[in-house]
Design a protein that fits this description.
Largest sheet: 8 strands, antiparallel
Distance between the termini: 42 Å
Structural class: alpha+beta
CATH superfamily: MHC class I-like antigen recognition-like
Number of helices: 5
Strand content: 25-35%
Number of domains: 1
CATH architecture: 2-Layer Sandwich
Low-confidence stretches: 15-23
Strand order of the largest sheet: 4-3-2-1-5-6-7-8
Order of helices and strands: HEEEEHHEEEEHH
Mean pLDDT: 80
Shape: globular
CATH topology: Murine Class I Major Histocompatibility Complex, H2-DB, Chain A, domain 1
Length: 210
């Protein structure tokens, strides 16, 4: 498969996962994590935005070490058990991903300093069950890898970022941790948030970083 075909395949998968409503009334929850390997004490090294059906409802940053609600849904669910669980998981996941950064192998000619890792963790529910889950890895804004955590299938876009894939394959504890989050925890959180989401008939602001 050519690079263009692979990139097209990746784009199609992401569009299906992130669609606001897909045939069959599917819904999605995505967590966009940005992690830096180096920072001074007190400086930002991790930030996360969470979205349900592409609409932001959650924001976390390591500087404040707090998870903040965004929009109507965020305010509606920020005192739920699912909110508490997702808040704890985001802190842990950020730390785990930060440990992965030193093993990433990049072309020295392309390196302009320590890389920034972006990970989009998404799950999709349809017919009351998890119908899709994935991890989308980018380095300094450039798409590198896609992992379908339902089938454990990798799509490699940037061969220079194979260190991530190797770490996942060699560290079964790490792989199982993120597989469980994406296929189990994420689907549960989405189900719980949808109980509130579907009751809400108010228009949702686009919103972003508070």
């Amino acid at each position: 498969m050519s690079l263009a075909q692979t990139a097209g395949h990746l784009l199609l998968i992401l569009l299906l996962i992130e669609a606001r409503k897909t045939p069959g009334n599917a819904h999605s929850l995505c967590l966009d994590l940005t992690v830096k390997s180096q920072s001074r004490p007190g400086q930002l090294w991790c930030q996360v935005q969470g979205s349900v059906d592409t609409k932001p409802f959650l924001w976390y940053d390591s500087a404040s070490n707090k998870v903040k609600p965004l929009g109507f849904l965020g305010k509606e669910v920020n005192d739920t058990k699912a909110w508490t669980e997702i808040s704890q998981t985001l802190v842990e996941a950020g730390r785990e991903l930060r440990m992965v950064l030193p093993v990433i192998k990049l072309d020295k000619n392309e390196m302009k300093g320590p890389p920034t890792l972006q990970v989009k963790l998404c799950c999709q529910r349809e017919a009351e069950q998890c119908s899709g889950a994935s991890l989308h890895f980018s380095l300094d804004g450039q798409t590198a890898l896609l992992l379908d955590t339902m089938s454990i299938t990798w799509t490699v876009i940037d061969p220079g970022a194979t260190g991530i894939k190797e770490e996942w394959e060699n560290n079964q504890e790490l792989a199982e941790y993120f597989r469980t989050i994406s296929t189990g925890d994420c689907s549960y959180w989405l189900r719980e948030f949808l109980k509130h989401w579907e009751k809400m008939q108010l228009p949702e602001p686009t919103g972003g970083t508070p």
